[in-house]
Design a protein that fits this description.
Helix content: over 70%
Number of domains: 1
Number of helices: 4
Number of strands: 0
Largest sheet: none
Amino acid sequence: MDENLKRQQEFMFMNSRLQLERQILMQNQMRERQMAMQIAWTREFLKYFGAFYGLAAVALTAGSIKKKKPGLLLPVIPLTFILVYQYDMGYGTLLQRMKGEAENILDTESTLLDMPKGVITFETIEKARRSQSKFFIEK
């Protein structure tokens, strides 16, 4: 009887461990797919924005030369920053730098990540549920 209970507990432990490993792998694959979609979106946006940037730069340069007003070139400056950021996000090292900074925050500034009023507990959820139930019952 004791042996049977022990085997059953071991089976339950291994089963829950396997389930947890599968959940972790699934969440990681979901995260990877979301990141891949974000990078793909950025690369696609870069194509359209690059075409807009090229057209705007040529038009503003031609307009500033024709009207002899160098101030017409000012919009090219912020557009250049946007173009470079999008390129860095889609094809550069921005994601690696962001990952490094995130790891640094986790290692050295973890207090910034604390939730207001602490971690949510079963008791806080139940308290909110009970107060909401009273609210709906009263109406």
